[in-house]
Amino acid sequence: MAAGIIVGCLLLVAALAVVVGLTVWSRQIIERIAARKLRSAREIVRELNHG
Amino acid sequence: MADRPRVTTELSRDLSLFHITMMGLGMMIGAGVFIGIGNSLQRAGPGGLLLTFALNGVIAIFTAMSFAELSSAIPRAGGAYNFARIGFGRGTSFLAGWMEWFASSVAGSLYAVVFATYVLEFFVRLGFLEWLPIPVEIARKILAFSVASVFLYVNYRGASETGKIGAFFTLGQTLFVAAIAALGVVTAIRDPARLQNFQPFLPMGWSALLVTMGFIYVAFEGFEVIAQAGDEAVDPKRNLPKAMLYSVMIVTLTYVGVSFATVVAVKAGTPGVEGAPWAWIGSFGDTGFGQAVSQLMPAPFLGYLVVTLAVIFSSTSALNATIYSATRSSYALGRDRMLSPAFAKISRRRKTPWVALLATGAIVLTVATLLPTTDVASSASIMFLALFLMVNVCVIKIRLNMGDELSYGFLMPLFPLFPVAAMICQAVLAVWLVHMSLVAWIVAPLWILGGLAFYHLYAKSRAVATEDEIHVLEEQSAGEGDEYRIMVAVANPENALSLVRTTYALCGAKEARVELLHMVPVPDQVPLSDADRYMVEGREAIAETMLYLAPSFPLSSTIRYCRNVGRGIVSAVREKRVNLLIMGWHGGRHSRRFTLGSTVDPVIERAPCSVVILKNVRDQKFKHVLAAVAGGENSAFALEVGSILADREEGDLTAFTVVPEDREAFDVDEYVERYLDRLVLPRHRVRTRRARARRIEPALTAEIENPDEDYDLVVLGCTRDPYVHRFVRESVPERVAAACAKPLVMVQASGGLRSWIKRWL
Fold this sequence. Notes:
heterodimer, A: mainly alpha, about 85% helix, B: alpha/beta, Amino acid/polyamine transporter I, Rossmann fold, 11-stranded mixed sheet, about 10% strand, disordered N terminus
């Protein structure tokens, strides 16, 4: 039973971390695209990968 | 007579990030969470309740990222309807808009009924309605009708009023729900023994979790309304994606907090509470949330008051947002003549689409007052899930097909992991809804079939062309058949003549039927109706090519206009089920973003057929042909094409390979023997050469320029690097091809899973 609580709590924390983490990461991408005036998908992927 | 001044009307752009975030939140924190908490506790237990909201939040954020990417690139009213139109074309987009209109309207009527139910229930508990001369049920319908009418008028007042009034209500509801969550945390800190309420964590097991996730998913539909505000939002490329992601994050954290508060609200052993607290709360079903929250308050009356106020705020803001969403869906259908053009009429005074609003109001009021809402709401959920699934497919298809043309404000990371994961989860949840409501699985297909019939009888012939579509201007067909099909993309008369001999040789070897294609690129500023003026060169080029090829091969020819040549060619290849595409390449590139050029790159990446690209190949005999091989299907195709193009009388073919110093030697002789049956040259005129070097590119370039061999044609296979990899950096064959001054042919072979995926996408 204790194992169920531990797994459940870990899953809960992981799920919330994914939601918050993806939101923060996406916001950074939006700001970088706006700041560098990037347009097409090819341009953005290339720029973001080269940091 | 002087022209009369044209009066144009457009939607006002005055919704800020705050307004559109609140719009999404308002639609999500509706009735679903209040009804769902008690039921989920009953079915999955206390831990299952928390996990239900948290895991649904993960699925919602995946889909929100797809909506965010698409709405940042296509920020127009219509949302999913627009995405489907660009991704799949008219028929699918009509269905998307049709489903979204119905689903949002019915959801709106549901919220009106929930509002009326909770408000009347509160007054009935206080004994204030004993004087009513009519049954409570009729009073409920009248109240639902009234509140829906009020919000229809609010939507008529304009986008700004809609957003601002909606934002006010949403702020209120979010603060109420957050206050309940905070009260739960304070209670748990003051009395830690209440955390024992989470024992057992998952009494019904993990399988029960899937059931409650499907049931609760309705509480997460709403962020898509933000996409509808594309025409009215300030700085939509940044604000639309941000608002979608923020609203999903806020709502997920709020739901988990409220769920926690509900579980710890009841103290074990309290008089009247039988069994485990979570089971006692769950036993109340729909009203379990209210029962639990009333225990948190010093007096039951205060508890009921808080719950009723929360429901008033949430259901009204959700009602406001759903009316907004449904109206914009039907407005977009009218704008593109999929519905009557009257739906696109905008009030000059209020700048709102009043006819679309009137039609939406008719559905909302009819369903709210006359029809049973539970099953119809379930069918709306099925349609929302189908819509979300469609949007997740659209985001993949549009990124691959139009990534170079659209201007993105947001691009999701780890593409396409998130949309694929979301699609799988949504399919599972949609299937689960069969167990929830059989009627829903009858109503939903009926509405869809009705939409299909309406589309074929009315909308299909009236829909206006959008700037994203590709149109056929002239087409001459040589008849249908199952033979091998070669398409030649002809650009201009000079280009046409240089392509002819190569095409002639390949046609002879393949016994093929030839399709000539000329794409007419029309600048964005030029109306498509004026495209004829761009056709002159195309007609001339096709006429010359036909003159040369027509006596020997069955020919078809097509002239099409488009906004992007690469996409137009891929589209034609897919429609005509072409086996081999031949096109010319001028050898340069206008932008550093592309390896071979803005037309050639997309064709190599996306064409679902074999491709042969010619650079500097003129009408001459090739005596010494070099084919670079490194194993794989592209190298075999390079050998085959090289043998076809080599002069039949005197030509020879050299299969050359470079083996990096740190790798094992590649047996080029064995490779040639394996594919010998595909070569048209006799074995003794096919030679093999190899070189060992640290880097492939300089060794290959040196062999091409080798004066002793005097190659007059070079054949290279395109890279087999993954699609995403090519986005990031150029590959060796493309770099060598770009630098090569000799006649050069680049080839890419089709076949296997990769070609199947390309054709499907």
